[in-house]
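Hi! If you just cloned this repository, the fastest way to understand the data is to look at a raw example. We've pasted two of them here, unedited. The first protein comes first, obviously.
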Amino acid sequence: MASIWLVLVLWIYINDTKKGIQALSCAKIHTPASMVLAGSPVSVSCSIQDDCPLTKGKNFHVAWKIDNHFAPSNLSYQESNRTYGVIIPSLPDAGAFILCAVCEEQENLDSCQIVNGVNVKVGHPPSVPKNLRCSLSLTFNQSFCCQWDPGQEMPNLPTNYILHIFREMSKNDRYVIPRGMHSYSIPSDSLFLEMEINVTAVNIFGNATSETLKLVPLETAKFDPPEIKRIEADVFGCLNYSWSLAQSQTWLVTPLCVELRLKTMNNQLIKELVLPFWKQENKINVCDLPHGTNYSTTMRVKYNSLSKWSNWSDLKIANTLMKAPTGSLDTWLKVNDQTAQLYWKPSEDFSANGWDLSYTVESKKPKKALCVTRENHCFFNLPELVETVYLRATNAIGSSDHTKVPVYPKRGLGSVSNLSVHPKSEASVLITWGRPASPHVTGYVLEWRPLCETPAAPLSFTLMDKNNSSTIVTGLRPYEPYEISIYPKYVDGIGHPQTLMAYSSQKAPSVAPYLNVTEINGIEMVLFVIPACIGLSLLVIIVVFACVGKHERVKMCLWPIIPDPANSSIKRWTDSDSLQGMPHCKEDMEPVLMYLSHFSLLDLAENKPFKSDYVKEDQWSHDIDSHDESHPSFQTCVIYDTEHDKESVPYATVVFGGPYQNHSSPPPAYVRSDSTQPLLGANNPGSPPPYENVSPSGGVSQVQHFATFLQKSTESEENEEHWDDFPMLRSLEIRNTDHI
């Protein structure tokens, strides 16, 4: 069954391929142009071959398809016996595929077989070039360059551009622009003659010409910044400038338009001079300038009013000649007892005529300089009976005339009424007031100062005529409070002030706060938290193991154990005893040597029973000669904590059962342990009850001086292994010596 289906599919494929091959060799198609103008009709013809297998011995007709859609039959016609044609009124802007098909039946279009086809494109005339502009370059290689915007272009329709230049009394020039370029540079052989320029776009469907541009080439030039060579000040209030064009344009000799800009060193614009059609004399004289003032000057040039300005030249600094200051100063004197505060500022007729001004306040009777400063205020002690002080300004050339400052004898006269402040803008306020009742008012003094500056800023003031009842104060800082006061001035004194605190108008914040949002993602947290947890866990494990493994050492470092005699007892040791009485260690290993922190030597006496509550040192000492020499034996009493024996610090007392042998050497001084740790309970009223000592012989003898033990060599060898168990007691061993 599968083989039958396979044979059927192969037969269908071969049959279709055969029909396709037969169809491709059946007809030839022809059209006058493969691209037509948009909106114009298109004609296509199809010639059927005589040996076409689709038509041989058959009745057929020809149908036309436009982009897979059959064209109406009224558009087609038969030109000759086997040639058929179609006329299409117009095609879409994107063009279309026109196909020729052979149909066996007259009305059934499904039986049509396409035999050939052609792709016909649609084109448009070129767009009009726009924004034609030309400029002259005055660098070392002079050139006149024109540019334009081409508009929309078709990628499959080449467009050429032609640049036309028309000059008066000269031949016209025509430049064909290379394909793909929308600018062109031509030689600049005539800079001062007017010319007309346009550009034409050309393709197979037509051409389009831009608007005509009329210009003089030099008008389109933008000069390089000029250079100020030198500035001289040889006359009061005047500056003489010497200048030239840039080095690349010094060859040009023609009148130019020049502009100078003069600013003071505090960036205040003083003069801005525009000199039209200035002759190329390289000299400019500027006068009517303030004396003794520093200026920064820059300049620029252009050809005429239609041209573009060049960039500004580099700054040059110069100053006019100085002379002594002229004019008077506005002053405001405030007196409190004999302390004076004098403020001043330049009046409208004052001219510094120089820089680095200093100010001098002085009195004539007595003749005395009260203050010399470079500020605009001065505080000083006012001499008695002085009615006028004098203020003058001084520069390097000289001093100005004196400004008289009267000292008013009367203070606290009538004040103004209804003082009010109204915000006008961010930096200004409107101040209004009512006039005093007295008719002897000569004027007003308005003063203000900011309240939030540290250190406190000096006050500002202004003088006003007596007819004023309002004024506007400018130059305030927004959002800051100001203290504003107004004083009326009288013929013989100053009135009492009226004071208000005011703000200029506020506004919304100019800059929004910046919100910095940091996103932390289920990866960054893992990378941070997991290592932190692992490290913390390792640290805890290490600390726990260290504490467990070094428990005794850690405990002794943190809280050392001090033996408590109240909870101790006496253990008897002889030279035949072993280490059975020593506390056993936790580990099953060889016993560790026990180091004593204290030991004493006791001599047992028959006549003194050992029943005292406390063993005192004065009970342990007596003459060594009074003892019997025949019994050189000793006993050791070890006192240790019975309740906490494994954690106690042991110490020992050596008790001798018999006297030491007589020694001819002088008795040594009494030796005690170097330990500085006190025994608990000693001389402590709050200590527990004393312990009970059990004496093996019923008494305790006094402590004897250290002497040698008489031992036989065999006894030393037998007891050698016992001494190894008690390293501190071994230090008490004294070898046998002959001394009788």
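Ok, and the second one:
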Amino acid sequence: MRRHQFHLKNVDPTFTGTSRLHLQHKLLTRLCAMMSEGEDADRALDSLFIQESEEVYRNPTEVKMSQIVLPCHANHCGELSAGQLLKWMDSTACLSAERHAGCSCITASVDDIHFEHTIGVGKVVNIIAKVNRAFTSSMEVGILVTCEDLYTDSQWKVCHAFATFVARRTEAGKVQLKQVIPCTQMEQMEYSLAAERRRMRLIHAEIITDLLNSSTAQLGECQEYQDAVPAERTRVESVELVLPPHANHQVSTFGGQIMAWMENVATISACRLCNAHPTLRSIDMFHFRGPSHIGDRLVLKAIVNNAFKHSMEVGVCAEAYQGGEPLRHINSAFMTFEVLDSDRKPRTLPRIRPEPVDGKRRYQEAIARKKIRLDRKYIISCKQTEVPLSVPWDPSNQMYLSYNNVSALKLMDTRNNWVLTSEKNKVRLYTLEENHMLCFKVEMHVSVAAEQTFHLLSDLRRRKEWDRHYEECEVINQADEDDTLYRVATPSVSKRGKGQDFILLASRRKPCDARDPYLIALRSVTLPTHPPTEDYTRGEVLCAGFTIWEESSSVTKITYYNQATPGVLPYISTDIAGLSSSFYSAFAACSVFLEANKDSLAALHSLHCDTTLTTTVSSLQEDQQHQ
């Protein structure tokens, strides 16, 4: 179980002294009781904070909505319409964004949403939204949806989503958003991860396009199935007139309303394939291309792109026009549906026969998107303890592996229950034991600029200049400017034993702003081109890397993290037990290495060019996304 700390900051003023201790005891007691009944720690904690957050902590951007599901909100199966839920989620998140921005905000994008459960009539939907992080004029809002049964006093998670909102221009010009100040460990974690999720959003469209192009080229011709349903039969087109009730207080169509209309035509399309009521399971990440206003005619089109054994992908598009003007593309989305039997198990679906040309393209792209979706769910959605140490790497999952790599390091960095084990020559060694795994970190300061430190430590080939555990290091693949695959060999810890080798993905990140560190994240991956050999024992790294904080123009704090696996433990066990000082020697050598190379102008110039290019590209992508 992951260790959680309750921070009683910003509590009600009456909760002081004995009351505060009593409240903390009450929270811990309830958490233990929930977990003793077999509930997951994270889910129990989410549920606990939903129940107790009024007493414990008040995030200034937090907005709550509770709705009882009435028959008018439900479909003919007595379940809450996913479109209605999307409307509630969007309006709650928008109010949270506006509370932080102090001005009107619009929905720019919504990340992948996976619906874990359906919600029946009579149940209560609880939605909590809060701003995780603000950037220049955009902000990420986290949305947690739970369902409550009033008769059994039980709650469960329905979905967790992230939406990006943009502050609208005012008469004074473009809005400069104030910073979000995280106050709890959970908020610090989301704040840190928000920067990595933003990076994924900015490159998402380009990456997906490249993957689809490469994947569909390998798929060949579509398979022909007997009794396949013609895709044309599933085509749906509907028009909606945008009226004042559909608009927000800015006289623009609610993003949630557009999503609800899109879900409606997608459901009809899915139903035409299977002649049964489908259940929406997930919506892929999408961006709003432009606004819609009162008086617009919104044209919604949907078609089943492909049907797999137990699921189908429906593509849906929203376009708007007024009078005789041409159609404006508002949004496109891909929704995955299932059909459940009486035991709530997915039914086998009929196959689809795609239309010529465009239909076959959509059919093949749906196969590629399914693989991407599975990679994303497997790599990102799984908890760290549920993911195997080494995950196969290929270009189709590079973006998600990189995200997982950096996120794991950021999660380790936000933990605040490290125990100082020993200190020598201003090098500190900390440990943290949880989930039957040992984590350690080494912390020190150097008189070298943070930018130069980042560049010198980023190239693992130079690590053998200061770390005797690095015997060999070669670049296998330079995936892009931020991600590199290495093979690293280390000597044996015993005289007769074999050495170990590792296939590592190194993901480096520059700060999003002054509140972020430089990051170099490492994790093991597998490559078919580099199988284990007889000369070495294949080792694995679950999570390791450096965070580099600039404390002044010439002083940098370096922290090295490692979530120790059986392959790593032999190298560090004596240090942690206090029987050896090899780690201190290694990091003292690291300090000497950095000091000796701190004036490497060529390296610094290269990094400046790299930073300028990356910043320019990111700014252009964000501006295009928000236009």
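That's it. A detail worth noticing about the second one: Residues 1-26, 35-54, 574-580, 604-627 have pLDDT under 50 and may be disordered.
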